Amino acid sequence: DSSEWARYENIDSMLRIEDDYFVIYYSRKDSADEHNKALVCQRYAHEAIPQGERLMKNYPYPNQLNGRKLPIYLANSDKSFQNICLQLNHGTPNSLAIGLYCFRYGSGKVFTDGIIISPKAWTVREKKIRANEGLAEYFAGNYDRLREVGNYSRLDLRDDFRGGGNTEYWAGLSAYLSLEEAFSSAAVSDVVVNSYTSSIDKSLKTAIPSYGGLSQWNKEWHQFMDAKEYIKYKENKR
């Protein structure tokens, strides 16, 4: 409620640094330290642009979005993290989350309200990071999640299997690796780009006309896992 929000910083009063691609908001409290964090975040954000270009063919901010830059909010406490999420109308995040991508659908498009970074992001060990999902890990070339392969036989790519701890990370990562082995990394990128405007099933059939869609991908992913093809990626070797 509004009385609870009043206890924490309003996003409209946050300080910010801005460049050609990003607007990074940070707290006025302890602003010197928070400003340094914003500069670090800015550097990492720019380092992620090439990965975004690889994933999306072209990096959309700001040229493809009417000049709108990507907003990133740095929370200076767990309560502030929750509060910023509420102010952006995205509810209360999981207590284990170190970041949240806030978006909404409208007129056939996805609108990003902002990326919110928890203070946990500055202290969590890399192997514990849970902010990215399988697709992001795939394009980043990070195969650490494969060490957590578990009971994949109960999973189906046609279902939403979120909420299973780290399941969505390693399952998503291994699924994209299986698709790459069957075709190529370029084909995976084509599937992703098509998924912006179509279902994943239709995107598969559009990007790879000879493919049988999501049902075939699910079948071949299980075969990939049964044959332990994922093992070769565990040491970050392609």
Give your account of this protein's structure.
The protein is an alpha/beta fold and 238 residues long. The protein is 39% helix and 13% strand. The chain has 8 helices and 5 strands, in the order H-E-E-H-E-H-E-E-H-H-H-H-H. The chain has helices at residues 2-5, 31-56, 78-87, 134-140, 167-182, 185-194, 200-207, 214-226; strands at 15-18, 22-26, 70-74, 99-106, 109-117. It has a 5-stranded mixed beta sheet with strand order 1-2-3-5-4, with helices on both faces. A hairpin with a 2-residue loop joins strand 4 and strand 5. Helix 5 crosses helix 8. The longest helix is centred in the first third of the chain and has 26 residues, at 31-56. The protein is globular. Mean pLDDT is 80; it is low at 125-131.
Topology:
Blueprint (H helix, E strand, L loop, with lengths): L1 H4 L9 E4 L3 E5 L4 H26 L13 E5 L3 H10 L11 E8 L2 E9 L16 H7 L26 H16 L2 H10 L5 H8 L6 H13 L12
Parallel strand pairs: 2-3, 3-5
Antiparallel strand pairs: 1-2, 4-5
